[in-house]
Amino acid sequence: MKRVIVANNGVEHAIDFVAPWLWLGRGGRCDLLLDDERLLREHLQLGRGEVVTFRARGGLCTLEGEELRTGTLPAGAVLVIAETWQVRIEEREPLDEARIARLGTLETDTARQVFADELEGAGEVDFADYVRAEAAFHEQPNEVTRQTLRAATSLVPAWQRAQVARAAIEGCAREQCPGAWSALPVSSEPRWRSCQRCGQTVTFCDSLREARALEAPLVLEPARPRRPDDLAPSVLRS
Predict the structure, then answer these.
(1) Confidence (pTM)
(2) pLDDT attached to residue 212
(3) Rounded-to-integer distance, Cα 120 and Cα 124, Å
């Protein structure tokens, strides 16, 4: 999966490129918020494809010494906006077969606690804490466990959370739908799983904004605040 990396003064921000389009800027409908008065609220739009495209609203960008407003951003190249913000695209390595097999054994909360201990022993402390928080919320879903899960969510990227999250599949009306993300087989790309009953691809979404930009079926990160009908069929992209 492609990831967008944005760096400035030694600080990096990253987001998985799941939706067809991503916006960078300091407000508005941006997927990645950047705190800099030099940027417009919606400064740069990126389009996902075999090659990522870009379109700048906030003045010219610099790519390999050339000033541009639109163009393509190859993997490894650096696009500079507002003089100091560096935007690049990376390809994240897929999960290996050993991790996929291990994730396929997490059918009980006890098994998940053992997996969390393994992660902590391997130095993946934040991921281990998320696995424990997810298990606690799944066992007793209340405001206390939800807040703990939200705190853990902020420290773990979506591609890791998708490996162990349990959430309902939304936007699928088929009677044979398995109904849950955890009922789908784990794939090498953590944020996409294929339903073996209907053949559709289900996407793990990190936010309501991301979900609304995608075609159903999908699941939403369980720690996110919800309201009735926030992803009703009329809201989902079709």
Answers:
(1) 0.81
(2) 85
(3) 5
